[in-house]
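Narrative of activities, Objective 1.

The group set out to show that a structural description can be obtained from nothing but a protein's sequence at a throughput compatible with the screening campaign. Below is one input-output pair from the validation batch, recorded exactly as produced.
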Amino acid sequence: MSDDIPGGERPAKPRQLGRGLSALLGDVPPPAADLPPPRATDAVPVEFLRPGSVQPRRHFNEAELDALAASVKERGILQPILVRSDPDAPGRYEIIAGERRWRAAQRARLHEVPVIVREMNDEAALEVAIVENVQRQDLGAIEEAEGYRSLIYDYGHTQETLAKAVGKARSHIANIMRLLNLPKDVQELVNDGTLSFGHARALMNVENAEGLARKVAKEGLNVRQTERLARQPRYALGTVTNHIPKPKDRDTAQLEHRLSEATGLKVGIENWGERGRVSIRYESLEQLDALIDRLERGWR
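Output recorded for this entry:
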């Protein structure tokens, strides 16, 4: 199900996100209870900054960094880097948003960079970093999904509050988080740009995602070609010879009926000895959202 959250249990205390990047940077006054006022600093030495401990972005394109460094060398940094005090090094700072600009500044051999200092905890820092990177389209799909997962796991947010904060559809949040169910090797191919988000979505419903991913990468297949290949019987989930479903007994049929009644959708159960799979079929995003709402009410 697309609202499944890979890798852990859902916490019980959701909280509303902030008011967007403009408010967090000080362009729009935030509610006093949400964030402290910013403390502006003209410039600080580049060596006084370090990457953020909760920064969702992990991959930086070398060619893009070189291009940004050339621009920074000519025009300087036009938007200050958002930072907070480094708890482990008095007088130094941890980057919340703007690590790419900081890296480019070092390549451009700048000695100082402009910053805005705002004191915030790890939760608020992660929220701001995700919003800033998503708005700039700087995050890869896996990085974006991992950021959402952290906010849900660690801080009790829901997909609905995340969608409102980053200006994305709730279905986007649900679908991109499904990428975290892919094997790690496939996720790495998405991270390094070998596979796109479209490729990854096509691989989410195949039996041997790693094998198909290697084939797609080796042959340079586009998304449509990958989707066609994923529908072939040799890759379709549940068609591998050692995973042939056993005939359904009366108990399994009754369980399917009960789950269908509970969800309002068609539910299938397949058994492979001690293993198996439960599938839920939906015909529209509205049906998916209704299912997610029903499940979330059960978790709270």
